[in-house]
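Reviewers of the previous submission asked for a worked example of the structure-prediction workflow described in the proposal, so we include one complete record here. The input consisted solely of the amino acid sequence. No template or homolog information was supplied to the procedure at any stage.
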Amino acid sequence: MIRVCAASLIRRFRVLSVLLAASAVLAAGSVLVHNSALAQNKVRTETIQVTPQVTPPGNAATPASGNTARSQAPANGAHAVRPGDTKGGESAPPEVITDSARLPEPVARMRARILEAARSGSLEKVATVMQSNELMPIFTFGNDRDPLALWQAAFPDSKGVEVLGILLDVMEAPFVHVDQGTPQEMFIWPYFARYPIRNLDPEQLVELFRIVTGSDYREMVEFGAYAFYRVGIAPDGVWHFFVAGE
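From that input alone, the workflow returned the following structure tokens.
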């Protein structure tokens, strides 16, 4: 099950509700498999073509599926950030960067790979990029270990492909460069993830509504931070997260 800090927040955000339902479906499937006599069947459903969620640690996984044997990147930096949550308390909003030419070469290269995979419409290609990473990027704050199965359950009408559209919208938005000079230094898309959600001007709201709905925005204002999908890539090109929630 995907967890956020408070159950009320899960109910508030549309995407979190969808992902919660997806995790419940996957968990139910796991129980059915465990109780069946077919002990050799180690996938949640016959229709999912990936099996990495049960790959024992140390074993190799196929490039086209989520890699459950690998450790995920540390969660620090992936969580939703309210103004004042960062060390040092209140500070000026970060610079909003619109020119991708300002990205370091390793970051630009990883971003290009992500965009290419997402545009293909193939969940497996995105999973391959994730697996090629130094660490498995965070795709959930819960216990789900297979991103493909999670996305397919979260967006059943599109068989998970909807998440690729979200990924494209996020990565084509302006971004921020945060925590410079620290081990947590990161390039984050969209910039709303580290920008005061209550201080957006009309033009910024238009940019936001390319990614979220008006009801999402209202709930984020109540919460005090952007909490929809965001992407983080370190200066060395390591993809750290693509996740939604607190």
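Residues 1-13, 25-71 have pLDDT under 50 and may be disordered. We consider this example representative of the routine output the project will generate in years two and three.
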